[in-house]
Design brief:
Blueprint lengths: L10 E5 L4 E5 L6 E2 L30 H20 L31 H7 L3 H12 L8 H5 L14 E2 L5 H4 L3 H12 L5 H11 L7 E3 H5 L3 H8 E7 L3 H10 L10 H6 L2 E17 L2 E22 L11 E6 L2 E4 L1 H6 L12 E2 L9 E6 H11 L5 E4 L3 E12 L1
Helix pairs in contact: 2-3
Length: 404
């Protein structure tokens, strides 16, 4: 599937004109370069400096301290005046450089250069999130269960600085048609499904003695608390980058949309709904109060996205393939993408060149989730974190009726 008749390997790159995958085959294919790997030697970004401490108040100098300081300053100034303004001593001749033949080597590509390449592929939000990951302190979940519970390598909950509530905006997410489609379905139909009604009952029973409920009165502006206490429905959007590559390779990739900035930023994610406002009342049938029956009418909901930015692979699975990357962007090798679904299909594990192997941007390196984990081990840095968008309040009309 991957090799051409001339021994070169077919691949797909992003065609900027129609923003679709473009097949490069035959003489335009790529060639493997064995024995290379993506570099990880570049030092991680500096950690944010701790908050400046309150300066120690100073006391006035004594007369003796002032006299000593003035004398020292004058002595230094006099020494400068007495110093000659030039040095006539001839400099020692520089040794002749040893002439050596130039050795052409493949230039290194460091994993921390991927965000710059993402920007060239019109993925600025994805690039910003990856840069945040590289700049973070070490934080990751060893297993899938730990990731679900937001538990890190120390067996502790993710610390507050591992939550990002400002980078990704809901309005930006909904600019993408596939996300807007799921959003519309969520707020018009999914919130009224039997599963949603059952979940609403579970969430509202503790508050049934009230006459009304505004969840911000309970949670304030804490998105994590709102999600924990009042989230009751969601709708899944898209697939992760590896899944998108795999699915498109199985289908007609040349007609498929490329991984875009939404894919780079969030991969496979959910749009969530939480209770916003509720009105409680006793149900009255035929003018008679039905004892013990409380009617809750959900009149408003909160809509938002939350997702984990992490490189955790499922235990026992091959590490997810994220494409071949260079300083100029990303390409996809079909055999590589198919192999990501099986342990038994061989694939091109080495970097490839699309032209001259000594030109940096023409050499592409395979990137997997495991490469980011390896970087974490090497540098003791790299912080998996949780993304929360801002929230949108949506009135519900007609209100959703739930009997408690």
């Amino acid at each position: 599937m991957a090799a051409s008749t001339n021994g070169k390997i077919r691949y797909f790159k992003i065609g900027k004109l129609l923003w679709r995958w473009k097949l490069c085959d035959g003489d335009n294919g790529c060639s493997p370069i064995p024995g290379l790997a993506i570099a990880m030697d570049k030092a991680p970004p500096a950690l944010p400096s701790p908050a400046a401490s309150t300066p120690t108040p100073t006391r006035p100098w004594t007369r003796e301290e002032f006299r000593k300081d003035t004398a020292a300053t004058f002595s230094s100034f006099k020494k400068w005046l007495d110093t000659p303004w030039g040095d006539d001593t001839p400099a020692a001749p520089k040794p002749e450089p040893v002439k050596q033949g130039k050795v052409k080597t493949v230039p290194a590509f460091d994993i921390q250069e991927i965000p710059g390449a993402m920007r060239k592929e019109m993925m600025p939000v994805g690039a910003k999130l990856m840069e945040r990951w590289f700049a973070g302190r070490l934080n990751y979940s060893p297993t899938d269960d730990d990731e679900q519970g937001k538990i890190n390598q120390d067996g502790k909950p993710y610390p507050p600085d591992m939550y990002d509530t400002t980078t990704v905006k809901l309005d930006w997410v909904l600019k993408y048609a596939r996300a807007k489609e799921k959003y519309d379905y969520l707020i018009t139909e999914a919130i009224r499904s039997p599963r949603a009604i059952d979940k609403l009952k579970e969430k509202l029973i503790p508050y049934k003695a009230r006459s009304d409920l505004f969840t911000t009165d309970v949670c304030g502006d804490d998105s994590k608390q709102l999600h924990k206490l009042f989230q009751f429905q969601f709708s899944q959007v898209d697939g992760a980058l590896a899944e998108k590559i795999r699915n498109q390779l199985i289908a007609d990739i040349e007609r498929s949309g490329i991984p875009d900035d939404l894919t780079a930023a969030l991969g496979s994610f959910n749009i969530y709904v939480a209770i916003g406002s509720v009105r409680f009342s006793q149900d009255i049938a035929s003018g008679v109060v039905v004892s013990g029956t409380i009617k809750a009418q959900i009149t408003g909901i909160w809509v938002y996205v939350t997702d984990g930015y992490t490189f955790t692979d499922k235990q026992g699975d091959r590490s997810q393939y994220l494409g071949h990357w260079s300083s100029d962007g990303v390409i996809v090798i079909p055999l590589d993408g198919v192999a990501a679904t099986s342990r038994h299909i061989p694939y091109v594990e080495s970097p490839v060149t699309i032209g001259n192997p000594v030109i940096k941007w023409e050499v592409y390196y395979p990137v997997h989730n495991s490469d980011f984990r390896q970087w974490q081990i090497k540098h003791k840095r790299g912080g998996d974190f949780i993304i929360y968008t801002d929230r949108r309040f949506v009135p519900v009309n007609p209100a959703i009726a739930v009997y408690l």
